[in-house]
Amino acid sequence: MILEREKALELLHAHIKNPRMIMHCRASEAVMRALARHFGEDEDQWGLAGLLHDLDVEFTDADPLTHGPTAAAWLDEMGVDPEITDAIRMHNERATGLQRFTRFQHALAAVETITGLIHATVWVYPDKNIQAVKPKSIVKRMKEKAFAASVKRENILECEKLGLSIDQFAAIALMAMQQMPEYTP
Questions:
Q1: CA proximity to 31, closest of 111, 97, 142, 150
Q2: Helices (H), the chain
Q3: Domain ranges of the chain
Q4: Nearest CA to 68 among 102, 97, 26?
Q5: Model pLDDT for residues 108-143, shown as the tens digit of each residue
Q6: What is the CATH architecture of 5-178?
């Protein structure tokens, strides 16, 4: 089953109170939808995984050993599509001890990470306007290990397992976030 988006948003707001985390989840949804369009995949399925991937982050206090599998278990109990819950479970490979191997898993791990890098890049722009950011700025920041040091660049580089260069991936992700009318840094 794929949850209706409104139901998914209600679930998100019931479990996450931090507005920045909610914005991160919504940005991940937008980028996952853009990737689904690019690859001819199911936009609702991929978007839902992006929207709900961090559903348990406040409950688990982002514990790397329980974050991801907890949200996946909640969604499994609700009868959500197993491909969605699997991607959510696998976006935090530390919790599972397994390697990602599907396009969907690689996409979610790369997407949820690049949204953080894009967000950090927006913050260094004087006007903090995402519309002013260019894909080359994202790629440049990607190479600066001290910039947004907590961003796992190896996860972003999983875009290559999707057949996308970092330049292509940054362009798709940035455009998706720029098209979000609700985006705020």
A1: 111
A2: 5-15, 19-39, 43-52, 69-77, 82-90, 93-96, 103-124, 135-143, 153-156, 166-178
A3: 5-178
A4: 97
A5: 999 999 999 999 999 999 999 999 999 999 999 999
A6: Orthogonal Bundle (1.10)
Alpha carbons within 13 angstroms on the beta-carbon side of residue 155 total 20
- Which band of pLDDT confidence, cut at 50, 70 and 90, is reported for residue 55? very high
Express each pLDDT in 160-175 by its tens digit.
Answer: 999 999 999 999 999 9
Handedness of CA 94, 98, 101, 105 (dihedral sign): negative
Taking CA atoms, 102 is separated from 23, 25, 71, 84, 183, in Å, by: 26, 21, 19, 12, 29
As a whole number, mean pLDDT of residues 74-101 equals 94
The whole-angstrom separation of Cα 55 and Cα 88 is 9
The overall average pLDDT reported for the chain is 96
Question: What whole-number distance in Å separates Cα of residue 148 and Cα of residue 64?
Answer: 19
CB-based contacts of 146: which residues, under 8 Å, 6+ apart? none
Least Cα distance to 32 among 66, 83, 79, 75 occurs for 83
